[in-house]
């Protein structure tokens, strides 16, 4: 029953979105004026009317990220199964803070995460949990790594440490690490910017040099972040080199594979993630290339005891512990928690591994089509990645002006990006399993008409 209702809504919406605009043209003032004049909350409004109105607002005043010509920031088109899952979750509202309150939901999550743990090549007893997204997973990684490296951090805080901790990342790593450094108290200056090679991958020699220099200067290096699919250009850091270095230097290797991690499922792509299974922890988002609605991140860590140590909390308020299981509230950042994992479980059960391989490889193929099509049309590709993310430019391009024309004509949504210290270029990422070759060819042709 839920399935039939959701199926017909989703099918209609998909058609509407595919045939409608992608980019809105609205100011904050217009929306605020509308809301103020329609909703002062003094009188109830019929639910049918509010729902219709909200849908209208979402259709009109939103970048349509599920449009096949949205070439954007990793926000995917979503599978029907995953939308049904979120509907069920809202209806049953299970509380996953403890195992006892939601045994079924907790075990479904554990089972689903176990599948991906194996794909990454982590040991079967590694820890894994669903998070709100990549930012929470990366935060979890830093907290656990700090707790592991500095036994005084948890109880005494940073002031008890003899030396200032340092994390090694590149400028291409996700910018959320700036906030994480701030929030964990290690400070933004604890982020050491390792140089990149011309292909924007972390330079292992510069990493070694910086770690040695910091040790000599009395700092306490504890963590290296390798990105598997950078946000700007889809570059994969040299994970096997980083893993070897971290092992020899007793450093924690975190692989931020928020977007690129899904490639581990694909026989065609998985070799590009070689070395990821040697990481101490991994971030991978279901709400990116696994095509489920936000927010669904995943955090994996081979040191289960360290996770339990970092997030432990005792209270008589919560139901008692259950033998043989970790309660999520005492092994993660969140306390009350939504049944995040059902959307991946349901989609995976429905499409099967083969269906996911097909979806992921289709998008990789569309990335190749886009690259080729742009080259043929005279554009210059400036990034290098096996993943479906293309950064490109042409002589005299002013990206902001070009994008304004692209949006105005509703051709596609793509963005502007600066790689290293070069001039800004255009960035287009295939994020929808519905994008076809003809979508791409049409977009590239229409782009050629923009002066
Ligand atoms: C490499 C990388 N890490 C982390 C994040 C943050 O993930 P989220 O937006 O799910 O919090 C992103 C977001 O795009 C990302 O590209």
Main features:
7-stranded mixed beta sheet; 451 residues; 4-stranded antiparallel beta sheet; binds pyridoxal-5'-phosphate
What's the short version?
The chain is of the alpha/beta class and 451 residues long. The protein has helices at 2-18, 28-38, 47-60, 80-92, 103-120, 134-149, 153-156, 176-183, 204-216, 239-249, 304-310, 342-376, 399-408, 437-447, and strands at residues 127-131, 165-170, 191-194, 220-227, 252-256, 281-285, 297-301, 380-381, 389-393, 415-417, 425-429. Bound molecules: pyridoxal-5'-phosphate.
Structural features, described:
- The protein is of the alpha/beta class and 451 residues long.
- Helices cover 42% and strands 12% of the residues.
- The chain has 14 helices and eleven strands.
- The strands form two sheets. Strands 1-7-6-5-4-2-3 form a seven-stranded mixed beta sheet, with helices on both faces. Strands 8-9-11-10 form a four-stranded antiparallel beta sheet, covered by helices on one side.
- β10 and β11 form a beta hairpin.
- α1 crosses α4, α4 packs antiparallel against α12 and α6 packs across α8.
- The longest helix is centred in the C-terminal third of the chain and has 35 residues.
- 44% of the residues are buried.
- The mean pLDDT is 96.
- The structure holds pyridoxal-5'-phosphate (PLP).
- The site of pyridoxal-5'-phosphate (PLP) has 14 residues, from α6.
């Amino acid at each position: 029953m839920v399935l039939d209702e959701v199926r017909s809504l989703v099918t209609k919406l998909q058609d509407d979105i595919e045939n409608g605009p992608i980019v809105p043209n609205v100011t904050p003032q217009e929306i605020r004026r509308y809301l103020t004049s329609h909703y002062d909350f003094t009188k109830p409004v019929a639910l049918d009317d509010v729902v219709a109105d909200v849908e209208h607002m979402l259709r009109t005043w939103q970048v349509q990220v599920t449009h096949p010509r949205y070439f954007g920031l990793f926000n995917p088109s979503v599978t029907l199964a995953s939308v049904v899952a979120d509907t069920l979750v809202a209806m049953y509202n299970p509380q996953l803070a403890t195992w006892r309150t939601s045994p079924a939901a907790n075990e479904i999550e554990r089972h689903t995460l176990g599948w991906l743990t194996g794909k990454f090549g982590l040991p079967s007893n590694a820890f894994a949990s669903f998070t709100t997204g990549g930012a929470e997973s990366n935060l979890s990684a830093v907290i656990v790594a700090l707790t592991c490296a500095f036994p005084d951090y948890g109880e005494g805080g940073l002031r008890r440490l003899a030396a200032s901790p340092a994390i090694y990342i590149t400028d291409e790593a996700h910018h959320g690490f700036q906030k994480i450094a701030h929030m964990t108290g290690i400070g933004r200056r604890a982020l050491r910017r390792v140089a990149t090679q011309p292909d924007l991958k972390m330079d292992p020699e510069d990493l070694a040099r910086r770690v040695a220099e910091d040790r000599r200067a009395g700092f306490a290096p504890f963590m290296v972040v390798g990105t598997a699919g950078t946000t700007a250009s889809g570059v994969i850091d040299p994970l096997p080199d980083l893993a070897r270095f971290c092992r020899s230097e007793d450093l924690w290797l975190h692989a931020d594979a928020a977007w690129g991690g899904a490639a581990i499922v694909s026989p065609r792509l998985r070799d590009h993630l070689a070395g990821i299974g040697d990481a101490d922890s991994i971030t991978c988002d279901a709400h990116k290339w696994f095509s489920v609605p936000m927010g669904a991140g995943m955090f994996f860590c081979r040191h289960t005891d360290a996770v339990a140590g970092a997030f432990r909390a005792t209270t008589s308020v919560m139901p008692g512990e259950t033998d043989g299981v970790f309660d999520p509230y005492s092994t993660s950042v969140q306390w009350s928690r939504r049944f995040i994992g059902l959307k991946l479980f349901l989609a995976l059960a429905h499409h099967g591994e083969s269906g996911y391989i097909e979806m992921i490889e289709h998008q990789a193929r569309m990335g190749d089509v886009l690259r080729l099509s742009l080259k043929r049309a005279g554009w210059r590709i400036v990034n290098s990645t096996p993943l479906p993310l293309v950064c490109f430019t042409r002589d005299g391009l002013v990206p902001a002006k070009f994008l304004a024309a692209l949006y105005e004509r509703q051709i596609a949504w793509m963005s502007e990006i600066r790689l290293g210290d070069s001039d800004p270029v255009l960035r287009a990422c295939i994020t929808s399993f519905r994008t076809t070759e003809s979508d791409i060819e049409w977009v590239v042709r229409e782009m050629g008409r923009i002066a």
